[in-house]
Amino acid sequence: MKRNLLLLVFFIVTIETATAQQLPQYTQYVFNNILLNPAVTGIENYTDAKLGYRAQWTGLNGAPVTSFLSVNAPIGTDFTEGDATSFPGGGGVNPSSRLYTQNYQASAPHHGIGFTLVTDKAGPITQTNIAVDYAYHIGLAPRLNLALGVAAGFNHVSLNTSEITLATPLDPAIANGNNSQWKPDLGIGTWLYAADFYVGLSVQQLLKQNLYFSTSTTQLDVSKTVPHYFLTAGTKVYLSDDITLLPSFLIKEIQPVPLTYDLNLKASFQDKFWLGGSYRHNDSFGILAGFNLSSFINVGYSYDITTSSLNTVSNGTHEIVIGLLLNNRYKVTCPQH
Questions:
Q1: What is the radius of gyration, based on Cα positions, of the chain?
Q2: Alpha-carbon distance values, 274 to 31, 98, 300 (Å)
Q3: 178: nearest Cα among 211, 218, 215
Q4: DSSP secondary-structure letter at 202?
């Protein structure tokens, strides 16, 4: 009886969560905004590769598990070989420092290209997003940049019927074996940034698609994808030459539910390591930490404490992200832009 009750609670909350957000959510998106906004593609003066894994609501059978790979790089010799904000070979000024901000100049116009692969499994449903990302970066003013980006690709949704037990084996909702579907996908975004702040606006799932697991939809309510709108911004606050705070927020609009938001605060210690916290409205509190191990690799970890109605059965959410700084000619150890 208890097990059945927990399963019922899980599926009710899962349905409510799916209604609010059809795409995966992340805790460390602040350090990899390409997952939400293609305009950041090619923003750094190196090839930025990140591999991540997120286990949500651990301890609950069938809870969402997300894996992702993102790679993006700049194109344009004026930027990659002559960026005015780059460092001399072997490193130099810490990008989180007050001195870096004082010497900052807008980046040279350049392109960015990238690739993202995200797989999200929740119960018997697996969703995979594959996209190619493109952005163009220009200088609006001597110390201000603007980027416009687009992500185009495909979304694959599959249903593993072997994980489902039905009272009626020939349930019309999943009859006829239409359990694997490919749909086109499109997202766009813009990113305004300087040395000490950024503002981004993006939308994912612009192409509305019908989702159903039966070849006959005449008597069924067909699920549909909806656009996801994201507004995010952050700024730098200098406590000293070595310690910098980065407060930021993310507002999400996904019809037909009300607006929801995230609040984040990161403390950076030189360019060596960082600590942070986050709050997701009506969902969780998070603690974050990361280390810039070298000019080649960094790692971040976060743990979310569930505050929703699932907190009685969830052991929290773990997320780990490994970053590689490829073709890093200036040997920086943390992001400049």
A1: 21
A2: 11, 17, 9
A3: 215
A4: E
- The first and second tokens of residue 200, run together, are 């981004």
Domain count, the chain: 1
Residue 9 resides in a domain: yes
Quick count: other Cβ atoms within 10 Å of Cβ 199?
A: 15
DSSP-based helix, strand, coil % in the chain, nearest 5? 15, 45, 40
Residue whose tokens read 């069938």: 62
The CA-based angle 155-159-165, given to 5 degrees, is 160
CA-CA distance, 104 to 86, in Å (whole number)? 9
- CATH code assigned at 94: 2.40.160.40
Residue 336 included in any domain = no
Instruction: Please identify which residue in the block is written with the tokens 């249903």.
Output: 159
Beta strands in 241-283 (DSSP E): 243-253, 260-269, 273-280
Answer yes or no: is 309 within a domain.
yes
pTM of whole model > 0.70?
yes
What domain range includes position 123? 2-326
- What 3-state DSSP class applies to 77? helix
Q: Look up tokens 């001195």; give the residue.
A: 99
Q: Tens-of-pLDDT digits for all 337 residues of the chain?
A: 333 434 434 444 444 444 446 889 999 999 999 999 999 999 999 999 999 999 998 888 888 999 999 999 999 888 876 664 544 444 456 676 777 777 788 888 999 999 999 999 998 889 999 999 999 999 999 999 999 999 999 999 888 877 777 776 666 666 666 678 899 999 999 999 998 999 999 999 999 887 766 666 555 556 788 999 999 999 999 998 889 999 999 999 998 888 899 999 999 998 889 999 999 998 899 999 999 999 999 999 999 999 988 878 888 999 999 999 999 988 888 887 8
Pure H helices in the chain: 2-20, 77-80, 98-102
337 within a domain of the structure (yes/no): no
